[in-house]
Amino acid sequence: MDPVYAGLFDPQQWNRYAYARNNPLGFVDHAAVGRFADQDFKTAIAVIELHNTRFGRYPTSLEELRFLGDWDRSSLVSVEYRPLVDGYELNLIGPWSEAERPSYPVEFFQGLGLEKTNVRTMEPR
Fold it and tell me: Is the Cβ–Cβ distance between 43 and 49 less than 8 Å?
């Protein structure tokens, strides 16, 4: 289902179940879901890397992160974090299908401590 309210002039959209013509599983906005997965993953990387910049080490857990905003906290619910010897593992968890899971070019990961992830890497062209 599209997470954004579409309008006042179509009564079918007033009720979020009816909005999907009584078939919410058949009317999933995969592009919007994928954008949330992308944003959650990037937000988690940003706050983890910021912790390393501030304190000279990666956090032992996500609970150790400080100075988070509400959006940061909501993004962290969508990831699984595990510290490694020289970096960390970060995986997207949640309702995303393989098609909705974001993918990034290899260059995206350069300079990060992210050593292992379930997010796909795009092959260079």
Answer: no
Assigned domain for 7 exists: no
Helix extents (H) in the chain? 16-19, 30-55, 70-76
User: Does 100 fall in a domain?
Assistant: yes
84 within some domain: yes
pLDDT in tens, 51-89: 999 999 999 999 999 999 988 998 999 999 999 999 999
Q: Which domain holds residue 62?
A: 29-122
DSSP 8-class letter at 54 = H
Residue reference for tokens 């890497």: 121
CB 114 within 8 A of CB 84: no
Residue pointed to by tokens 């919007």? 32
